[in-house]
Design goal:
Blueprint (H helix, E strand, L loop, with lengths): L13 E6 L3 H13 L5 E5 L12 E2 L1 H9 L11 E9 L2 E13 L2 H15 L2 E4 L11 E6 L6 H6 L6 E10 L7 E6 L6 E7 L4 E9 L10 H11 L6 E9 L12 E3 L15 H19 L5 H26 L3 H13 L1 H12 L6 H7 L5 H10 L4
Length: 388
């Protein structure tokens, strides 16, 4: 994908430069240009598009709703929606129909479509590897959408939190798993689970991931990850294996003042329960694009505007997912949650919302997740997430 020469400004300056053209970066450009079509936007990425990206490929319906809010529709065209989800650990399992369908779209397709829309809307795309802030052209606002090993996050001096490591491949979908997303929890450092997501085209996205050990300890090897996948979801003959790091979100999210904004993986926003990051990428990309336009119009400091926008939208949800991920470190809680979700459809729906979108922990869900730990554990959990 080339750069439209008409969008190169004579003095080389830009209103907005976005580093990284994945969902977070492309959505930032789309949101900014939706708010102000005259904006000079440069989208940088080390790769041309389409390109593959290691991921579970699951796109929640919340993502499409967010994109529609900035006038972007149809990026899921041609891909089959899925309605069934199975959650399991050991002998316990629950399977049900999700209230809204999920799409499984290879990132090679999904990301390229978003970049195409951004270029159509007026962004300039340039293939460029950014290794330091000195590589960047002059801009009013810079957005770091450069992934788990973000150069711009390092430039801001922000610490990295807990991380997970996952490996992904593709394999033919067995007849009994067509139209279904399957997640099976293992026994290693939590979150640790194998997945198989039917793409609807005869193939499934399959993989396994787990929480990385503290610094100083050896990370799990490729052989170990594949062995865990085979143990939990045997029978898939996978190919195109790729690994990736997942910077998990924590109790509180921060964004410094200034003209450098962070979004998606670069912002350390991956759901610590499920490893899902596309929704956060799109939501924070929209927030960054809109905050950039407000700041460029003289509406305030870009970083402060972006920080407030993301906290308003995701702040409470991030606290709830952090608590849920800590609870899920205990197998008895995972088992209890699965049992209650099997009995109570509302708990099943709440787990889906918490894992894929911006859901919250309800009192009903707390009782399921904390089942078996006693009244004191339930009371403490309710107090921590602000439930009455």
């Amino acid at each position: 994908m080339g750069t439209p020469e008409a969008m190169i400004t004579p003095d080389g300056s830009w209103d907005l430069v976005v580093v990284g053209a994945g969902p977070a970066g492309a959505t930032t450009a789309l949101a900014a240009l939706h708010a102000d079509p005259s904006l000079r936007v440069l989208l940088l990425d080390r790769s041309d598009f389409p390109r593959d990206k290691s991921c579970g490929d699951g796109i929640a319906p919340h993502c499409f709703a967010k994109l529609a809010s900035i006038g972007v529709t149809g990026v899921e065209d041609g891909w089959t929606p899925l309605t069934r989800l199975e959650l399991a650990r050991g002998e316990g399992s629950v399977e049900g129909t999700m209230s809204r369908p999920v799409h499984v779209i290879p990132r090679q397709v999904f990301d390229a479509r978003l970049v195409e829309r951004a270029v159509e809307r007026g962004a300039a795309f340039r293939r460029q590897r950014v290794t330091s802030v000195d590589d960047l052209p002059d801009a009013g606002v810079v957005v770091g959408a450069d992934g788990a090993h973000s150069v711009l996050r390092a430039h801001l001096g922000l610490p990295t939190g807990r991380r997970a490591l996952a490996i992904r491949g593709y394999a033919p979908t067995p007849p009994d798993r067509r139209g279904t997303q399957v997640i099976r929890y293992g026994d290693r450092r939590q979150p640790a689970y194998a997945w198989a997501f039917d793409r609807g085209d005869g193939l499934s996205n399959i993989g396994y991931g787990e929480l990385l050990p503290p610094d100083g300890e050896d990370p799990p090897s490729r052989a170990l990850l594949l062995d865990q996948l085979e143990q939990l979801l045997p029978g898939y003959d996978g190919a195109e294996w790729k690994g990736h790091h997942l910077p998990l979100s924590s109790w509180r999210w921060d964004q410094p003042d200034g003209r450098v904004l962070l979004v998606g993986d670069a912002a350390g926003l991956i759901n610590p329960m499920t490893g899902e990051g596309i929704y956060y990428a799109i939501a924070t990309g929209i927030a960054a694009g809109q905050s950039s336009v407000r700041a460029l119009r003289g509406g305030g400091d870009p970083g402060a505007l972006h920080r407030q926008a993301v906290r308003d939208q995701l702040g409470r949800h991030l606290k709830h997912t952090f608590v849920a991920s800590r609870l899920a470190e205990h197998p008895v809680i995972v088992d209890g949650g699965i049992r209650v979700a099997r009995r109570d459809r509302r708990v099943f729906d709440e787990l889906v919302e918490l894992g894929l979108g911006d859901g919250r922990i309800s009192g009903r869900l707390v009782r399921g997740l904390a089942g078996g730990l006693g009244r004191k554990a339930v009371t403490a959990t309710r107090a921590r997430v602000g439930l009455t």
